[in-house]
């Protein structure tokens, strides 16, 4: 196979995270070459590249007793290491150590005990020298011809990617790869758990990995211009970097080069598991953070280790669960939390004593994700049954109940406190030894019992009042508050709430929806699933999917009924019904452009939450205006999860039977291949066109008697490079008098929609990117016209 190289110019500012307070032995005017006769020791000035850009020498991280050989930007006052030689073999005294050329031709680091590090090349037959180049690459070269390179540091990156270096896969025949590996801590360059690799399965996307086994972030595939999930990488006329992708038989890699030698950047996978990109700003004499991925540091897998809790503040912080302490205090003090926490009191693993264990309740959390998570179907009846199921297994460490019982065995990983991020989370109960609960708690319980006896007369009177209220509301005797917010209704309850299902709001393929009212006069929408076989499947999908998630742009499930063959779901009531009625209905209401834009943004936020913020990735599979509900403030809520597909975080796609609605189906549905969350992105893009035009995406006869498809019309207008964009003809004609129509926003939405419906799912953006574009955080390029649109007009 011939080499395929595609250089693309993009604005792609890269960098690495700062090593706080690093002490470096620096100097000016030193030579750039290491020879047998001129070794480098701690008492000498470092080697400096010809133009003075990079230096090679001994350095000592802040609060560390160890010394290392490393490379740093020489013209930046804040000296930050970009490469380390002896990262797993530090030295204690640089004055007794030296970097030199050995008798076998290798570059070696020696101390009083012998060889600490070596380039470790075999079969060297010529005399050699070491040279630090202006791109920061340390090379071992032939003395007589230094262009003959025998070894280079660019083949052995640490946590930092420098321009001109390759990060990718090695030979397809021999394997191997060049990856970035984070430091263990901010002052310890020992290889840590987090790394950045080019997808070993052969795609053009980068993956952030934990322990080389768990993927927790992806860049998205390379489109020829950008990575689909890295919006900060934007093509501009002010070209700063040339970013090249090479895919050949021998190797596949990305490489970037600077077109402006005055720009200094740092790209690093740091000790917290994030990619950090910095640019040096000379005016402020400081590094400016350009972007971080993943954006929320708590999204880094196992950042706080087993039984650790991550809290997203200005900087993410780790803490231990109640009843646990730091596994290794010294590591925590240096910012390494990956070993997590240990129990203060061990659980009993044999006999009946384990039944004495108790549970600590933690509210508003993102539930843990680990391989031991399981659903105990047999214990899904009540929170009490769920607790019993956990106590009956000595390996069970926690449970959560929200209509369905979830049990965890072994370590709890990725537990996150959501109190500071404005998202309603779940409740989890952590299993602890009975002795963890203080004597004070026991005494308080005893005091309550005594007080109850003393005030028995008052209690009796109270009971009479409660019974009276109960009798007044006896028709709701079957309503049971379930852990979290779900309520279990009887069928008779729902008959009463809906006046025997007399006020029908609408219907669909899986049943009808009726208006109802709870005893406190709260309006609800009751969905009555019709057809036992189909309804049962629908019921299980909806309850297991949305019964455990909460988001302002997702419909809230209040309760359910599962009685014999009757399956009903109780939702919050949406006074402005569904989006299709507002867009295509015959009512007098016409959604303003401002409302439409906020609706599009809200839907994107809801889908982003489903795809990336839930315990499992949830693919909705049927995004269309009928499944978007609007409350009294026209806030959109993604609804109708009957076709949803849950996909574990260990998988990037899932094979499933065809589902959804014609007109919104992504091409991969038609071909029968496995789908990913990008199928929802396609459906969302098709729906965006309908939000813009106020019409169904159907062929419309134009004045010239030609047939045209609205998405194709919009795509052609966007890609028309001759003259100004005629965006007015795309907007709903009913908005002609709306002075609030922002044509810049119209162009932005059209562009996003065209990107979303690209034929290749790798070219479609993630919903996180869509949200950022609609929020105006960055601009995107004009996409190509999807080939499939042309076929739809034939």
TrEMBL record:
User: Per UniProt, what is the membrane topology?
Assistant: Single-pass type I membrane protein
Q: Kindly indicate where the leader peptide sits in this chain.
A: 1-21
Apple domain: residues covered? 341-433
UniProt enzyme class: transferase
Any Pfam family: S_locus_glycop
Entry's InterPro entries?
Answer: Bulb-type_lectin_dom (IPR001480), Bulb-type_lectin_dom_sf (IPR036426), Kinase-like_dom_sf (IPR011009), Pan_app (IPR003609), Prot_kinase_dom (IPR000719), Protein_kinase_ATP_BS (IPR017441), S_locus_glycoprot_dom (IPR000858), Ser/Thr_kinase_AS (IPR008271)
Q: Matching SMART domains, A to Z?
A: B_lectin, S_TKc
Gene3D superfamilies listed in its UniProt record: Bulb-type lectin domain, Phosphorylase Kinase, domain 1, Transferase(Phosphotransferase) domain 1
Q: Subcellular localization, per the record?
A: Membrane
Tell me where in this chain the Protein kinase domain is found.
499-778
The reaction(s) this protein catalyses: L-threonyl-[protein] + ATP = O-phospho-L-threonyl-[protein] + ADP + H(+); L-seryl-[protein] + ATP = O-phospho-L-seryl-[protein] + ADP + H(+)
Q: Matching PROSITE patterns, A to Z?
A: BULB_LECTIN, PAN, PROTEIN_KINASE_ATP, PROTEIN_KINASE_DOM, PROTEIN_KINASE_ST
A GO molecular-function annotation = protein serine/threonine kinase activity
Residues holding ATP = 528
Domain spans labelled Bulb-type lectin: 31-153
Alphabetic keyword roster: ATP-binding, Disulfide bond, EGF-like domain, Glycoprotein, Kinase, Membrane, Nucleotide-binding, Receptor, Serine/threonine-protein kinase, Signal, Transferase, Transmembrane, Transmembrane helix
Query: In which domain of life is the source organism classified?
Result: Eukaryota
| Predominant localisation class | membrane
Q: Transmembrane region positions? A: 450-472
Q: What is its EC number?
A: 2.7.11.1
Example GO biological process: response to other organism
Q: Which family does it belong to?
A: Belongs to the protein kinase superfamily. Ser/Thr protein kinase family.
**Protein name from the UniProt record:** Receptor-like serine/threonine-protein kinase
**Mind giving the lineage of the organism this protein is from?**
Eukaryota, Viridiplantae, Streptophyta, Embryophyta, Tracheophyta
């Amino acid at each position: 196979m011939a080499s395929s190289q595609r250089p693309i110019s993009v604005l792609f500012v890269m960098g690495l995270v700062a090593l706080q307070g690093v002490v470096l032995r620096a100097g000016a005017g030193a030579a750039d070459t290491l020879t047998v006769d001129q070794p480098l020791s701690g008492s000498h000035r470092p080697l400096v590249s010809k133009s003075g850009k990079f230096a090679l020498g001994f350095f000592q991280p802040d609060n560390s007793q160890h010394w290392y050989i490393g490379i740093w930007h020489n013209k930046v006052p804040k000296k930050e290491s970009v490469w380390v030689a002896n990262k797993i073999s530090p030295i204690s005294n640089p004055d007794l150590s030296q970097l030199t050329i050995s008798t076998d031709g290798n570059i070696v680091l020696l101390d009083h005990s012998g060889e600490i590090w070596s380039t470790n090349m075999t079969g060297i037959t010529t005399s050699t020298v070491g040279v630090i180049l202006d791109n920061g690459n340390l090379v071992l070269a032939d003395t007589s011809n230094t262009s003959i390179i025998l070894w280079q540091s660019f083949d052995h990156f640490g946590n930092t990617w420098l321009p001109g270096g390759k990060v990718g896969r090695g030979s397809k025949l021999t394997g191997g790869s060049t990856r970035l590996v984070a430091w263990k801590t901010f002052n310890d360059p020992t290889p840590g758990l987090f790394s950045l690799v080019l997808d070993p399965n052969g795609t053009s996307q980068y993956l952030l990995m934990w322990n080389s086994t768990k993927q927790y972030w992806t860049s998205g595939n390379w489109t020829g211009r950008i990575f689909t999930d890295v919006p900060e990488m934007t093509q501009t006329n002010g070209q700063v970097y040339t970013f090249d992708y090479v895919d050949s038989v021998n190797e596949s890699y990305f490489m970037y080069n600077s077109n402006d030698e005055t720009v200094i950047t740092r790209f690093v996978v740091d000790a917290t598991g994030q990619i950090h990109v910095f640019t040096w700003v000379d005016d402020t004499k400081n590094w400016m953070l350009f972007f971080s991925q993943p954006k929320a540091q708590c999204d880094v897998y196992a950042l706080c280790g087993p039984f650790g809790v991550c809290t997203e503040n200005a900087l993410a912080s780790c803490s231990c669960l109640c009843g646990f302490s730091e596994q290794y205090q010294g590591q925590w003090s240096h910012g390494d939390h990956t070993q997590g926490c240990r129990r203060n009191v061990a659980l009993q693993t044999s006999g009946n004593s384990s039944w004495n264990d108790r549970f600590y309740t933690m509210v508003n959390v993102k539930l843990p994700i680990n391989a031991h998570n399981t659903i105990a179907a047999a214990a899904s009846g009540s929170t009490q049954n769920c607790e019993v199921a956990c106590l009956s297994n000595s390996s069970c460490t926690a449970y959560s109940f929200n209509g369905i019982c979830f049990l965890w065995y072994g370590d709890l990983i990725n537990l996150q406190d959501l109190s500071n991020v404005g998202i309603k989370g779940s409740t989890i109960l952590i299993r602890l030894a009975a002795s963890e609960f203080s004597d004070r708690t026991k005494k308080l319980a005893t005091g309550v019992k005594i007080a109850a006896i003393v005030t028995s007369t008052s209690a009796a009177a109270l009971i009479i009042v409660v019974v009276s209220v109960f009798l007044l509301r006896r028709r709701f005797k079957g309503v049971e508050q379930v852990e979290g917010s779900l309520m279990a209704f009887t069928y008779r309850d729902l008959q009463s709430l809906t006046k025997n299902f007399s006020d029908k709001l609408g219907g669909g393929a899986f049943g009808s929806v009726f208006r109802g009212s709870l005893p406190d006069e709260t309006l609800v929408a009751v969905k009555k699933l019709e057809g036992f076989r189909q309804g049962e499947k629908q019921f299980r999908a909806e309850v297991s999917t949305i019964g455990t998630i909460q988001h302002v742009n997702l419909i809230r499930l209040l309760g359910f009924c599962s009685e014999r063959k009757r399956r009903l779901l109780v939702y919050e009531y949406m006074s402005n019904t569904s989006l299709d009625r507002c867009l295509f209905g015959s009512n007098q209401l016409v959604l303003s452009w401002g409302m439409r834009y906020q609706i599009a943004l809200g839907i994107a936020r809801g889908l982003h939450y489903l795809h990336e913020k839930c315990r499992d990735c949830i693919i909705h599979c049927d995004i269309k205006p009928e499944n978007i509900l609007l409350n009294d403030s026209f806030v959109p809520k993604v609804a109708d999860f009957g076709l949803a597909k849950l996909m574990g975080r260990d998988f990037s796609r899932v094979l499933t039977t065809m589902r959804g609605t014609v007109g919104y189906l992504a091409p991969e549905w038609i071909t029968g291949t496995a789908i990913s969350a990008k199928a929802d992105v396609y459906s969302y893009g098709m729906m965006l066109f309908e939000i813009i035009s106020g019409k169904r995406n159907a062929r419309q006869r134009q004045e010239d008697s030609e047939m045209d498809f609205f998405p194709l019309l919009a795509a052609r207008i966007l890609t028309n490079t001759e003259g100004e964009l005629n965006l007015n003809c795309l907007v709903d004609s009913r908005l002609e008098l709306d002075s609030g129509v922002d044509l810049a926003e119209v162009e932005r939405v059209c562009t996003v929609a065209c990107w979303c419906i690209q034929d290749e799912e790798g070219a479609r953006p993630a919903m996180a990117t869509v949200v950022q574009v609609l929020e105006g955080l960055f601009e995107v390029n004009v996409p190509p016209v999807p080939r499939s649109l042309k076929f739809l007009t034939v």
